[in-house]
């Protein structure tokens, strides 16, 4: 019979390989920065609508 330690290692091996394959490619950006950029773009769009009506 297989002992429990081997089963745990075998079942965890797939997860270890999965997380090793995930690498951050490209620049790592802070999530707060993305929110600030979105807010800034929204403000710019609204200002453009006010000052440059079509």
What key attributes describe this structure?
single chain; 54 residues; mainly alpha; 2 helices; elongated
Order of helices and strands: HH
* N-to-C span: 78 Å
Low-confidence blocks of residues = 4-8
* Number of structurally distinct domains: 1
Helix content: over 70%
Total E-strand runs = 0
Task: Explain what you see.
- The chain has two helices and no strands.
- Mean pLDDT is 75; it is low at 4-8.
- The protein has one domain (4-51).
- The protein has 54 residues and is mainly α.
- The radius of gyration is 24 Å and the shape is elongated.
SSE blueprint:
Elements: H1 4-21, H2 31-51
Short account of what is shown:
By secondary structure, this protein is mainly α. It contains two helices and no strands. The chain is elongated and about 45 Å long.
């Amino acid at each position: 019979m297989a002992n429990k330690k081997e089963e745990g290692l075998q079942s965890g091996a797939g997860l270890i390989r999965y997380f090793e394959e995930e690498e951050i490619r490209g620049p790592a950006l802070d999530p707060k920065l993305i929110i600030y950029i979105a807010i800034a773009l929204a403000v710019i769009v609204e200002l453009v609508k006010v000052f440059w009506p079509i």
